[in-house]
Amino acid sequence: MKLLRCLLLLLALVPFAARAQDDPFAGFAGGFEDIRHAIEALSVSGDKQAAPVIAALQNGALYVAPDKSLWIKQDDATFNARTGEKVATPPDDLKKVRVNNAVRGTIDAAMGSLTLFSADASERLKAAEAVFTGRNPGALPALTRALAQEKDANVRLVMEQARAAVVISVPDSSEADKLAGIAVLAGRGDLAAQSLLDSLATNQPPAVVAAAAAAEAKIARVQQVWALAQGVFYGLSLGSVLLLAAAGLAITFGVMGVINMAHGEMVMLGAYTTYVVQQVMQTYLPGAFGASLFVAIPLSFIVSGAVGIAVERTLIRYLYGRPLETLLATWGLSLVLQQAVRSIFGANNKEVSTPDWMSGATRWGGVTITYNRLYIIIFAVIVVGALMASLRFTALGLQMRAVTQNRRMAAAMGIRTPWIDALTFGLGSGVAGLAGVALSQIDNVSPNLGQGYIIDSFMVVVFGGVGNLWGTVVSALTLGIVNKFLEPIAGAVLGKIVVLVLLILFIQRKPRGLFPLKGRAVEA
Amino acid sequence: MSPWTFRICLVAVLGGALLLSVLNLAVPESSAVHVPTYAISLAGKYLSYAMLALAVDLVWGFAGILTLGHAAFFALGGYAMGMYLMRQIGPRGVYGNAILPDFMVFLNYKELPWYWHGFDNPGFAIVMVVLVPAVLALIFGWLAFRSRVSGVYLSIITQALTYALLLAFFRNDMGLGGNNGLTDFKDMFGIPLQQDSTRCGLLVATGVFLALALLVSRYLVTSRFGKVLIAVRDTESRTRFLGYRPERYKLFVWVLSAVIAGIGGALYVPQVGIINPGEFSPANSIESVIWVAVGGRGTLVGAVLGAVLVNLGKTIFTGALPELWLFALGALFILVTLLLPGGILGLLGRAPRRPKNVTPAAEPAE
């Protein structure tokens, strides 16, 4: 009898329980646990009020009246939560629906599945990703419906992955579903998928466990390839910085044979020109601030180039043919330039800001690409390309090559060799100034900026082969990539030391670099 | 480099060191000619630098090797001495550990790294002061001269060498005090370092070692060996064609020069009271080259003169007009190379004609 009564009681209760499930709004008046269930129920109900209600809950704008009716307050107006109608006189004694962390988590997951139906593809993509990370089983019906109507292949893929993530984390999914899910996740192949497979519940059928292990191994291989690609990107990025710093030196040292220890200071002058340009534009043209770098590029070329020409005319031309003396005199010059900048601008680091279009990052597969690094790589390519083109195709370039190959003959042909010397030196210094614009974006702009690059720059030029621009390009990129691949093994500082020692040893083997000039030019 | 200039220099170094010590110890403080103790340490520092300059002059002035990394040997000698002085502190350190120096206790070292063993013995430390720079110079020089790396290329890789050492010594894992280096020394050979008499003794010792180094260097460069060396400097390939092996001559003088620099560093550390990785910075090495250029390259005496004068100038300048010191030093580099290729001794007519640079890279690009 007792059992029968219990059963009867249960039967009597069923309609109420069913109704509570049918009416997703009811739970919001209850405790935190009820609210969470209500959110989950509402988010998959397809009710048009689902999104506004959950958003209101998230913003603390959802209220409950003593009769358990729900209200949303927005900008002094009150709306009925169920119907969305505005009411003139809200009921008294409205109490805010309170949330705790567990509820917030549920809200986030629910908002994710709600926006699965957004008209904006990027919103849907974001929502699918949210489901993937949240793995809320309640989102499954919504996800399935969203998948059925999704047209965008990219979004569809992520939705399938999200579905797979949910399916394999639900214990009572069928074995076949789980295997299919694992296959989808293996295709995704990123760290999130890997950790998901890793956290798979232990009491799985053996076939699932085996499939998960195989999928993890596959993901690990994919990850290795991506890590390699990421390393290459970092290496190219460092290499392009080295290339920019060394490109000017490849002209002054490589082509002219002048040991310019003040080369780093030409870079520093370029960086300070960028700083000044930004300061001026911030004051007088704040609207065009995003274009400040484009103003700084020609100006720093002109400033560093002009200083270079002045240095050549007043100092270096007296020291041609005496490389060691040139080295000492230009070192002295670098001290003077550093102190001059320190006296004018102060010893502190100067703030050079990065324009909006240069900040941020994007992902390409498993590789994170920061925009400033990307733009510096592009900038380096443009600068070196322009430099090579100007040497090869312009009249000045032709005269420069003539003078470096046979000075006397060039003079006999009517080339004013002293001016060509000055202009060549100016070109090399100007390119150093361009490097300064790029370095101002990634390094501290201080009077010591140049000193940090001078040894690296000389190493790049010597390693590549003096007088060979292509050699400089190859050597800069090689050194950049080798450095970045040594870093995880040996640490940043030790990696650099290893590279320096390797370079010292390399120069013993091939004193004239990777791509030495052959023939008569060698002895010049 | 007449014998007279040389003798005057020897007398000045030894006599100066003695005179300053006497004026510090024997003359009461109230007297007008009393020399304060800080001036004794300062003079000792200048003479240690003079040893570095002498080492640079040996290789640059007589073998044509423009080294931009000689301060590395100086600093290595200094570190060897510093390690001995650290071990001498014993349990008097802040943490009171009898075996481990303070920085190791601070960095949670459990036991002494292997290369610190033996440095509690002064004899071992002195051997290391000579041996460490010598071995490094031997390896580096053997590799470089054998493959005929010369001129500017050699300068750049010497700079890379000291730069690599700078980075290495900055690391805490190196077990040599990292950024802060070695300091807080208490005594040397059992004698407290802070005493006036110890400081005077160190000054005189530096003077004696400098004089010895001058004598050895002069003997070397005036001997038959020195003549070949100068021939190598002026026309290396012709000397080779005559049947000499230039790399051996260069290597010998290179290692000797590193040893002189190392001893200079070892004398420098107890007088200054600290050695840190900053001593490896390429700027220091290049500065030591300018001392030689100011005094007169290839004269030995000029190196000593230049080191003392430039450093005296630096002390005065950085005290009175710190802003202007780098301008002055930079201008010194430029003016000496442009207008005063023979240095001060050249101005006095005591130096030989400016050594001609006939390294292959020296020809104008043609």
Structural features, described:
- The complex is a heterodimer of chains A (524) and B (366).
- Chain A contains 20 helices and seven strands.
- Chain A has a five-stranded antiparallel sheet with strand order 4-3-2-1-5.
- Chain A has two domains: 23-204, no CATH class; 226-472 and 512-523, no CATH class.
- Chain A has helices at 2-22, 32-45, 50-58, 101-114, 121-134, 140-149, 153-169, 175-188, 191-198, 206-255, 263-284, 292-314, 323-345, 371-393, 395-405, 407-412, 417-442, 451-464, 469-490, 492-509; strands at residues 62-64, 70-74, 77-80, 86-87, 95-96, 361-364, 367-370.
- In chain A, a hairpin with a 5-residue loop joins strand 3 and strand 4.
- With 524 residues, chain A is mainly alpha-helical.
- With 366 residues, chain B is mostly helical.
- Chain B has one domain.
- In chain B, the strands form two sheets. Chain B has a two-stranded antiparallel ribbon.
- In chain B, helix 2 (37-63) packs antiparallel against helix 10 (246-272), helix 3 (70-89) packs across helix 10 and helix 7 runs antiparallel to helix 10 (246-272).
- Chain B is globular, with a radius of gyration of 21 Å.
Largest sheet of chain A: 5 strands, antiparallel
- The number of distinct structural domains of chain B comes to 1
Name the helicity range of chain B.
55-70%
Radius of gyration of chain A: 34 Å
Using only C-alpha atoms, the radius of gyration of chain B works out to 21 Å
